[in-house]
Specification:
The chain is α/β, with parallel strands linked by helices. The chain contains nine helices and six strands, in the order E-H-H-H-H-H-E-H-E-H-E-H-E-E-H.
C-alpha cells in the first residue's frame, strides 16, 4: 500500500488567512495608483510572487509601461510595509481551523512537514503562529527560478524532505498552486471553491475538513 511520508503546505490561505491581508494591502496600493481591483481579480494574485503580483496589477490598470524597475521595486516594498503592519499582530489564534490538529497528528505519525510558500515572509508568519518548530523544512522562495504554477517550489520541497513525489501530498488554496503541485507529480489537495480548484486530486471547501484520516484514505485509494 502507498504510504504517506510528507505533507507540503502552502501558507497563505491554507495555514492562515494572510491572503486577506495581501488583498487589503494590494487594494490600497492599487487605489493609490488609480486602479481598482476586486476579489475576483485577487484570485489571480494568490500564490504569485510579490513582484509578479505588482506586474499583474499594473497590467490590469493598463499602466505597466509607465513605471521603471526602480519605481516598481519601491511600490512592491510599499505594499510589503503595509502587509507587515497587518501580519505583525498575528498570533496562534490566526491559525485556520483544523490546521494545528493536522500538523500535530501528522507529526505524531512520523509524517514530515514542509512549507512551499511564495511568500518571503513565510518564516516570520510561522513564528508568529507558534508552529515553526513543527516544520522539517521551508523552501526559500528567493532562490526559485520560476514561481507557481511552475512545479519548482514543490519539487524542491520534496528534495529538502529527502522523499519522492509519490510519497507526498501538497495542500493549496490557489489555482496556480494546484497546477504547480500537479506538475510536480504530487497528490494535490485544494482548499476552497471547486470552481477555482477543479484540477486538484481532492478538493475540500475549507480547512476544518482537512482531517488526517480522510487525507490518508483519499491518498491511499487514489491510483497515482
Ligand atoms: P510576500 P502562498 C503567496 O503565498 C501569496 O498567496 C501571494 O498572494 C503573495 O503575493 C506571495 O505569497 C508573496 O508574498 O509578498 O509575503 O513575499 O500562497 O504561496 O503561501
Ligand atoms: Mg496560498
Amino acid at each position: 500500500m502507498k504510504k504517506l511520508k510528507g505533507i507540503i503546505f502552502d501558507l497563505d490561505g491554507v495555514i492562515t488567512d494572510s491572503a486577506e491581508y495581501h488583498y487589503v494591502a494590494w487594494k490600497n496600493l492599487a487605489n493609490n495608483l488609480g486602479i481598482d481591483i476586486d476579489r475576483k481579480f485577487n484570485e489571480k494574485l494568490k500564490g504569485i510572487s510579490r513582484e509578479d503580483s505588482l506586474e499583474r496589477i499594473l497590467e490590469y490598470g493598463k499602466v505597466l509601461n509607465d513605471y521603471s524597475d526602480d519605481e516598481k521595486s519601491r511600490l512592491a516594498e510599499q505594499k510589503n510595509e503595509e502587509y507587515l503592519k497587518l501580519i505583525k499582530q498575528m498570533t496562534a489564534d490566526d491559525l485556520l481551523p483544523g490546521i494545528y490538529n493536522l500538523l500535530t497528528d501528522a507529526k505524531a505519525k512520523g509524517i514530515k512537514l514542509a512549507l512551499a510558500s511564495a511568500s518571503k515572509n513565510g518564516p516570520f508568519i510561522l513564528e508568529r503562529l507558534g508552529i515553526e518548530k513543527l516544520f522539517d523544512t521551508i523552501v526559500d522562495p528567493s532562490i526559485l527560478s520560476a514561481g507557481k504554477p511552475d512545479p519548482e517550489i514543490f519539487i524542491r520541497a520534496v528534495q529538502q524532505l529527502d522523499l519522492s513525489p509519490e510519497e507526498c501530498i501538497g495542500i493549496e488554496d490557489a489555482e496556480a498552486g494546484v497546477k504547480a503541485i500537479n506538475a510536480a507529480n504530487i497528490f494535490s489537495i485544494g482548499v476552497g471553491s471547486s470552481d477555482v480548484l477543479h484540477e486538484a486530486n481532492y478538493c475540500l471547501t475549507n480547512t476544518s475538513k482537512l482531517k488526517l484520516d480522510n487525507i490518508l484514505e483519499q491518498f491511499e485509494s487514489t491510483m497515482f
